[in-house]
Structures are given as C-alpha cells and as structure tokens.
Amino acid sequence: MPADSDAQQDQHHPPSTTQDPALTEEDLVAIRATLSALRDDTTQASLYYDAATMAPLNPLAAAAVARLRAYKPPPFPLWDTLPVRKRAAVLILLYADRWGDLRVVITMRAANLRSFSGHAALPGGKADTAEETPYQIARREASEEIGLPQNDYGLPKPFRVEPLCTLPPALARTHLVVTPVVAFLHADRKLPGDASPLVEEAMIPRLDAREVAAVFSAPFYNFLKRDDLPVKGEGETLPEGAWYDGSWIQWKDVPWRVHNFHVPVNNQRVSTPRRASSSGQGNLAGKLEEEQANEGRFKVWGMTARVLLDAARVAFAETPEMEHNEDYGDRMIIDIAAKDGVFEEVAHADRPKDYDSERGKI
C-alpha cells in the first residue's frame, strides 16, 4: 500500500497505544522446548532456492519462530461481517538461510496490475468466498503468484509449510482489510547418506507474469534496524545506499509511519518470469534486472513494510530502532473506516465493468 505523495507529514511520534508483547511463561516454555529440540535433533533444517542454504535455525531464529507460534492476536469480530470483496490476506513466508537466519519472501507486482503496479508486496490477495480462512486465502494466492502449492501434498519432500500465526489486520488504501499470515518453510533433512533435495528443480518459484514481475528475499531481523545487517558470506558486499528512511503522514487523522526499506539484492538471485507477456511484463522484469545490477536494492514500503516490521517486533520481542506506530496493525483506522461506512455492501451502478475483474488482487 503506497503512501499518498501529498499527505501531510507529522514529525512527532504518535502517542503510545500498545506495548510490545511481553513474553509469558508459556512463551518461555515454548522457546526452551524449541531450542532443546534443535540441540537434540541435528537433522532439522530449512532452505529455499539454493542447496547451499540448508542449515538448522540458529538460537535467535529458533526463539523468533517459537514466539510467532505462541502469538495470539486480539479478537477481530469485524472480519466475519465484512463483504467478501473487502477481505484479503498476505503470506509472510519465512525460511532459514545457510547461517540459520530467517529470511522472508517478497514479490514485485506486475506492471499491468491496476493497483500498486511495480511495487514490492507479500504474496496474497482477496478472498474468493466467505468460508475461506486468511491462511487459505494466502496459500491460494501464493500458489498463483509464486508457484507455492496450496497444501503440503504438492510440496516435494522434505519440504513442509507450518502456519505459525496471524497478525492484527492492516488496511490497504483500497479499503481492503488485510490479515497477515506468518508461516515457516521447513526442509527436514533426510537421514545421513541420503541425497540432498534438488532444490533448484523443486523450489524455484513459477512466477505468473500477469501478477508478479520478480521474487526476492530479505533478512527478517533487519526490519527492526535502521541500518543494514553485516554481510556474512565470503566476498559479499553491501550495495550503495541506505537500508532505511521514513516519515510520518496523517491517515484518517491518525499518525501513520511510512517505512521505506531498501533491500540489498546484489548477493542473491532475483527470480523473474521465464516468458515475457504481451502486457509489458517483460519490460518491467528487464528493468528490475537492470536495477539489481546498477543499484543493488529494491524498495519495500507502505503496508508491506509496516506488516513486516510488526511481524519482526512479535518474532524478536525487540523495539524497532526507528520511529514507529506503537500499535500493531491498523485497527484504529479500520474502526474509523467502518464508522464511515466504507465496508457496507451496496450496489454501485456506476462501477467500471472491470471493477472486480482483477481477481484476488490487493
């Protein structure tokens, strides 16, 4: 969700409404159990795209996954009363890199989409039916956008996706209520002596050129920091430019922090559609490759950036280094929108013919 360019900026920190989640005794028990299991079971591992990235979770990442697994968002009864066309979900798909650090999968939206074309986004979209859960919405859309199967039966062994939690809802500028769903991609190692999985053949995303121009990843912990995390790979460097900048705007008279994260992509392979489409998608894919070569950073901002920062706050139980909204999600703004009647299901004879034709898209 992009910020309005002419929005009024407010350089003052908004009043605190919610504290960072404190760890309960149940959280600590879950974290200790996860760390103990990791020490006892050296076969647990996760990977994505590159066979060299198979590694067990390190203690920081293991504790983060345990916190997410134990997290329970506040009740949100409004979801069940929303029209289907106003419900949406996004998938925060986490996996472990070769050092056991968590990374998150991010897409670049296709050039031909009506809403937020060419912007970084999480896999996701609108609900199809009132019966779909946020997790089902997110998995279905991830299947369409990046080729992640809708259930684990379609995943090659040893991969499996574990749903961890949902987060408080966000509000897109199109007045879609978006539920973030956090999941972890496991790749449990086979027994010693077994062949490693053919990751390049099995897990490279099959991008839909009509919806996604590229897919890349970012270090999950970095969304709490003002600067880039140090590189760990031998010979790897950081590209020019800053990791973070941001500003305050007013949204429905509520202070809202716009976060701009500039993700380094010079040390990773950015996947693009294999075939160019007649919609100009090939041109955008080429532009992304050129940006990767010349600048080495992709911008992640707006609703996507806010959702990732909130997810990292829950996962690592740390206060972000940058100014930020103290509450999680956009519940206050959603309540204002509901009072304004923007979620009411009414007939609109003046809607364009293609109003709902862009199926599923945020």
UniProtKB/TrEMBL annotation:
<dbReference type="GO" id="GO:0010945">
    <property type="term" value="F:coenzyme A diphosphatase activity"/>
</dbReference>
<keyword id="KW-0464">Manganese</keyword>
<keyword id="KW-0378">Hydrolase</keyword>
<dbReference type="InterPro" id="IPR015797">
    <property type="entry name" value="NUDIX_hydrolase-like_dom_sf"/>
</dbReference>
<feature type="region of interest" description="Disordered">
    <location>
        <begin position="1"/>
        <end position="24"/>
    </location>
</feature>
<dbReference type="GO" id="GO:0046872">
    <property type="term" value="F:metal ion binding"/>
</dbReference>
<dbReference type="GO" id="GO:0015938">
    <property type="term" value="P:coenzyme A catabolic process"/>
</dbReference>
<feature type="domain" description="Nudix hydrolase">
    <location>
        <begin position="85"/>
        <end position="226"/>
    </location>
</feature>
<protein>
    <submittedName>
        <fullName>NUDIX hydrolase domain-like protein</fullName>
    </submittedName>
</protein>
<feature type="compositionally biased region" description="Polar residues">
    <location>
        <begin position="270"/>
        <end position="282"/>
    </location>
</feature>
<feature type="region of interest" description="Disordered">
    <location>
        <begin position="270"/>
        <end position="290"/>
    </location>
</feature>
<dbReference type="InterPro" id="IPR045121">
    <property type="entry name" value="CoAse"/>
</dbReference>
<dbReference type="Pfam" id="PF00293">
    <property type="entry name" value="NUDIX"/>
</dbReference>
<dbReference type="InterPro" id="IPR000086">
    <property type="entry name" value="NUDIX_hydrolase_dom"/>
</dbReference>
<keyword id="KW-0460">Magnesium</keyword>
<keyword id="KW-0479">Metal-binding</keyword>
